[in-house]
Design goal:
341 residues; mainly alpha; MetI-like fold; 17 helices; elongated
């Protein structure tokens, strides 16, 4: 029992008891749920991982962050740097360029209609990044607020908020997404209109509504352990209000899990938007999506035209991988329990 600390004070145990690892499987997320649960478990582990673990792969994190920034800049500057129009008028000259492989004139080749693939990938990146970071921001804010309130207040407040969270967790997410995203004019039981999922704001809203629950469970679990710490008791005795204790003492000690979840949420949102676009219910024309590009080229697999699906798929894969590596590196750098020792 040596070195384990006093019973009940281990934040990792509280987080495990909270069920924080129960992530909703949306779209292609089910293919990688084991890796996400493992990453989340590491983020919430209370034991000291040692100097080697705390300083793991800093260069890889920097490279991944630089790659994400480069993709974001390329997407933002797409109207300037793109070699063509993502949706040109289909004149005979444009159609004559159809199905041409990668070349100096068209580094990613052209699609079935003669449109430049590199241009469409750049514009598709804009949709993916807007959806990814938008969903992550909304999910983190809502989930952290619910989890912090539940973990700090406890009692009936905790019970009520966690039952609401459980209710959202048991919703068949993919089925609901397909129904809601496929409705061109969605409403909330006829009370008020929602932005359609065929546009970026609607897609962010839909994915966020089904993605904040794990964040709430994680933060609530962390708070259940942290609120019993000595420095929290000292702050209370010094006359600090509950709001001040939460903001200045508890939330800073949950930075690690929040950063990890935020980074993973970006990757999941990008993948889920791509899955919905692939199924025909994501962001639609005239917007360009990586998922829709993959869907349009699905019949080229195994042929000499496979480059049509290779390049958008590769960009999507590298983007999600880089975002997850950044989240892992930020966790190691900002979690105070990993800086100590």
């Amino acid at each position: 029992m040596s070195g384990t600390g006093r019973p009940g004070a281990h934040p990792g145990g509280a987080a495990r008891d909270s069920g924080a690892g129960e992530l909703p499987l949306v779209g292609s997320a089910g293919l990688v749920d084991e890796g996400i649960v493992a990453a989340d478990a590491v983020a919430r582990a209370g034991s000291d991982p040692g100097p080697a673990r705390r300083r793991r792969h800093p260069r890889l994190t920097v490279v991944a962050a630089g790659f994400v920034v480069a993709l974001a800049l390329a997407a933002a500057l797409a109207p300037v740097i793109a070699p063509g129009d993502p949706d040109p008028v289909l004149t005979p000259a444009v159609l004559a360029e159809a199905r041409q492989g990668p070349s100096w004139a068209h580094p990613f080749g052209t699609d079935q209609l003669g449109r430049d693939q590199l241009t469409r990938v750049l514009y598709g990146l804009r949709v993916s990044l807007l959806v990814g970071f938008g969903v992550a921001l909304v999910s983190v804010v809502v989930g952290a607020a619910v989890g912090a309130w539940a973990g700090w207040r406890g009692g009936w407040v905790d019970g009520l908020l966690m039952r609401v969270t459980d209710l959202f967790l048991v919703i068949p997410a993919l089925a609901l997404l397909l129904v809601v995203a496929g409705n061109p004019e969605p409403t909330f039981f006829g009370w008020f209109d929602l932005p359609p999922a065929t546009e970026v704001p609607g897609m962010v809203l839909i994915l966020s509504a089904l993605g904040w629950m794990p964040m709430a469970r994680i933060v609530r679990g962390e708070f259940l352990g942290l609120r019993e710490r000595g420095y929290v008791d000292a702050a209370r005795c010094a006359g600090a209000s509950g709001w001040r204790v939460v903001v200045t003492h508890l939330l800073p000690n949950t930075v690690g899990p929040i950063v990890v979840f935020g980074a993973l949420a970006v990757g999941f949102a990008i993948l889920n938007e791509a899955v919905l676009a692939f199924l025909g219910v994501g962001v639609q024309y005239p917007a360009v999506s990586l998922g829709s590009m993959i869907a349009d080229a699905e019949d080229t697999v195994g042929t000499e035209l496979a480059y049509m699906i290779l390049y958008p798929g590769l960009v999507l894969f590298l983007l999600v991988l880089a975002v997850n590596l950044v989240g892992d590196g930020l966790r190691d750098g900002f979690d105070p329990r990993r800086r100590s020792g």
